[in-house]
Design brief:
Elements: H1 3-16, E1 27-30, E2 38-41, H2 61-64, E3 69-73, E4 76-79, E5 90-95, E6 103-108, E7 123-126, E8 132-136, H3 143-149, H4 158-161, E9 172-174, H5 198-213, H6 217-228, H7 235-247, H8 250-257
Antiparallel strand pairs: 1-2, 3-4, 5-6, 7-8, 8-9
Length: 258
């Protein structure tokens, strides 16, 4: 099965789950293979996405228990044995409900390193529990193959999760985003209007990420004031970014932009 066919299955599963309905207030936007992430918008009464929350969208029992599929939460069901050598694949999910912040979260099992291979030969950084947490890109690496190495079903999302269009040698990728931190979308704000200028936005996001990695708070504040702030309209996004910039918490800012 090709990777594009796999993505189609996930989209179909979301539709089966009743999360997409004509003339309904809830909508689901699933990006192409290049984007690799989904943003869920639901009525304002819904609660914010949180790890292991009991407030997930209501899921059809048939979807959750479909033979040959494993349900990971938040309307995401993927084929069992979808990645060779992986007993329990994971999925990089990005979502929000109503006017709440956008969060990125790894669904499914803890990541495992199944070993270096062609197109995924970089070095792995471990967290305090000895689990894969970061990955340093090697020459020739491909996001989807890096994802396969760590049993991430939608590994192509590793680029956008790390606020870049393409990965490059020496780049350190976060494999397991912090779901408690407001995540800033890479391609465009979640409420971007038609005709939104994506290229200047993405360039500014990448500049914010580079400044965050360099612990350059003043440059981040300047980019926000002179370029990015005018591109956001959702109060929750503006408040989160300005609070992080005002407090100068570089750890939070790196998780938001880098």
């Amino acid at each position: 099965m090709s990777r594009s066919q796999k993505i189609t299955i996930v989209v179909s599963a979301l539709v089966v789950a009743g999360l997409v309905a004509v003339a309904a207030p809830a909508v689901v936007s699933v990006a192409s293979e290049l984007g690799g992430w989904a943003v869920f918008k639901q009525p304002a009464a819904a609660t914010a996405l949180a790890p292991k929350s009991t407030d997930e969208p209501e899921i059809d029992e048939a979807l959750e228990n479909s033979d040959g599929y494993v349900y990971l939460g938040y309307g995401t069901s993927i084929p069992v044995d979808s990645i060779e050598g992986c007993e329990a694949p994971a999925y990089l999910f990005v979502g929000s409900t109503g006017d709440e912040p956008v969060h990125a979260v790894l669904l499914g099992a803890d990541l495992v390193d199944t070993g270096a291979r062609e197109f995924a030969a970089g070095m792995v950084g471990l967290d305090e529990q000895g689990r894969p947490a970061t990955y340093t890109v090697a020459p020739g690496d491909v996001p989807s193959i890096v994802g396969d190495r760590f049993c991430i079903y939608n590994g192509q999302a590793l680029a956008s999760i790390n606020h870049t269009r393409t990965i490059h040698p020496g780049q350190v990728l976060r494999l397991n985003p912090d779901p408690t931190v407001h995540w800033i979308p890479y391609f465009n704000p979640t409420d971007a209007p038609a005709g939104f200028l994506q290229i200047p936005y993405q360039a500014a996001i990448e500049e914010m990420g580079s400044a965050a990695d360099a612990d350059d708070l003043e440059t981040m504040r300047a980019i926000w004031a002179n370029e990015l702030s005018a591109m956001f309209t959702r109060p929750v996004d503006i408040a989160a970014i300005e609070q992080a910039l005002n407090t100068g918490d570089m750890n939070i800012l790196r998780k938001m932009f880098s």
